[in-house]
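Format notes (please read before filing issues)

Several people have asked whether sequences and structure tokens are stored in separate files. They are not. Every record keeps both together, in the order shown below: the sequence lines, then the token lines. Line labels are part of the format and must not be stripped during preprocessing.
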Amino acid sequence: MKKLLVFILFILFLLLALFSWGWYKDTVVCCPEPVPEISYGPLIFDCNSGEVITNDLWPEKKQEILTKGAEGKRLLLVGPYFNSETEQEGVNRAEKVKLFFSELSDENVITDARFAGDCEATKVNMLHELKYKWVIRNDDIIEHFDKTFVFYKYDSDKEVTNETVLAYFDELSSFLKESGDNILIIGHTDSDGPSLYNEDLGLKRANEYKAHLISLGVDESKITVESKGETEPLRPNDTPENKQMNRRVAIHITE
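Then the structure lines:
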């Protein structure tokens, strides 16, 4: 009887061991966690060579970019540069993307660069951190990706009111009302005249455009104004042309 009992216990032990092994094999040993599939957008850059890689989503994205264009505007492509790289490598990436827009003349596509962090980690971001914007570039306005300059031909505190500038502020006001973003307007001057006078003149210029945006329906609380006077020239104040570049307001979207 004891032998039978021992035999039964032995069989139960074997069954328990087999069951335990099966559970261990199925849950611990057998099946590693599935690796999630990483999907990229229409365009990425090879992190080693900097070459542009596109997929079947690119034609639609390219058409979307082209459709946003408007008469009198140029396409600005801002290429990313990553950790341990120089700004020039970002410009090089933008120049390579520029080749995809053969429909546009060379002068209607502008390239620039911006820092974008880690190359591999940002591949999942739209266009691998390549940014684009249709911008105005003429004697009165120069738009960059993150700021806009409006220039003064004369030493005046009155806003520039030609057709191009008014159209820009109409577009800007619509954007601000739709997005809810905030805006910083900074007035700048050339070096003619006393520095205190120029600081006051820069503030008057900024306030002129603030008033104009308010008249277009932008909430006053969304607009901040400052003056840098003559302290931040874009160019040396040594020629009339350079002085005109320094007489400006700079407009920054601050979200």
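For reference, the curators noted about this record: The mean pLDDT is 88. DSSP finds six helices and ten strands in the chain.
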